[in-house]
Specification:
The complex is a heterodimer of chains A (176) and B (80). With 176 residues, chain A is α+β, with helices and mostly antiparallel strands. Chain A has one domain: Gyrase A, domain 2. Chain A has four helices and ten strands, in the order αβββββαββαβββα. The model of chain A has no long low-confidence stretch (mean pLDDT 93). The longest helix of chain A is centred in the C-terminal third of the chain and has 14 residues. Chain B is mainly β. Chain B has a three-stranded antiparallel β-sheet, with no helix packed on it. In chain B, strands 1-2 form a two-stranded antiparallel ribbon. The interface between A and B is medium-sized, with 13 and 12 residues. The structure holds zinc ion.
Chain lengths: 176, 80
């Protein structure tokens, strides 16, 4: 039985229009339905702790010394499961656990600093770096990308985080 | 606020961590052989030093790994 994809509603479906009104200091867009695979494997040296690797349309994010999050485009779950399965690996489809928000703009670091205690200056948190941390009291996976940041947030916390972003954004000084 | 150095993630805010109490409390080799008093001593009795204290922490909002560190209970300075 195949689910009708037209009936799918992403966790931030209801606030998509309000997020789209943000412009200037920051831009925010949900990237829904990404394929996400939790990979537990002991002998793997890439990506390094606190980093991520990108290969084509697939990112591998470091979550812990034996734990990684493989992120691919919507619908790529089976391809990723096949690619990473092995005798010493635990491979679990966790795609529904989190949705993604891509944040960009001149005020993006200022916005994140309102709710996140780690230093996100590019000297410390460079392109490719990723961290599991807390943003606006919400556990997130934060990834610095070529343009801006990607925030992976649990589906049930996503509406709270979106509301926090919408609330904090008018206070940004950059880009106005 | 206290910065706690996770061996994997580096310094993070204390709110990302879960405290695990005194480090190096060994599980009894033969728990069934213990008296109630001995079992209670294992479960509930801990050192309470004024000064350096070796303790367990879990980076629960980050890499979710347990580790040990030595903290001065007077100054909160992390010594190792
Ligand atoms: Zn950590």
């Amino acid at each position: 039985m195949t689910a009708d994809r037209n009936l799918r509603r992403s966790p931030l479906h209801g606030v998509r229009d309000r997020l789209a009104t943000l412009s200037g200091a920051i831009t925010v867009a949900e990237v829904p339905f990404l394929a996400q695979i939790n990979l537990r494997i002991t002998r793997r040296s890439e990506p390094r702790p606190g980093g991520s690797t990108s290969d084509g349309d697939v990112d591998v994010l470091w979550l812990g010394p034996d734990e990684f999050l493989v992120v691919g485009p919507p619908g790529s779950e089976q391809r990723l499961i096949s690619a990473y399965s092995g005798p010493e690996a635990s491979v679990v489809d966790v795609s529904a656990q989190r949705t993604a928000l891509d944040l960009d703009g001149p005020g993006v670091r200022e916005l994140l600093a309102f709710g996140c205690s780690i230093d996100l200056h590019p000297r410390v948190f460079a392109v490719g770096d990723c961290a599991q941390t807390v943003l606006a009291h919400t556990p997130v996976v934060l990834q610095r990308r070529m343009s801006g940041f990607r925030v992976l947030v649990r589906s049930s916390f996503a509406a709270h985080l979106a509301a926090w972003i919408l609330d904090a954004s008018p206070d940004l000084t950059a880009g106005h | 606020m206290m910065l706690i150095p996770c061996p994997w993630c580096g310094p993070r805010d204390e709110s990302e961590f879960h405290y695990g109490g005194q480090a190096g409390v060994a599980y009894p080799a033969d728990p069934a052989a213990l008296s109630d008093a001995e079992w209670a001593r294992y479960l509930f009795f801990r050192d309470n030093p004024k000064g350096p204290f070796r303790e367990r922490w879990s980076h629960s909002a980050g890499c979710r790994r347990w580790f040990s560190l030595v903290r001065d209970t007077v100054t909160n300075e992390v010594l190792s």
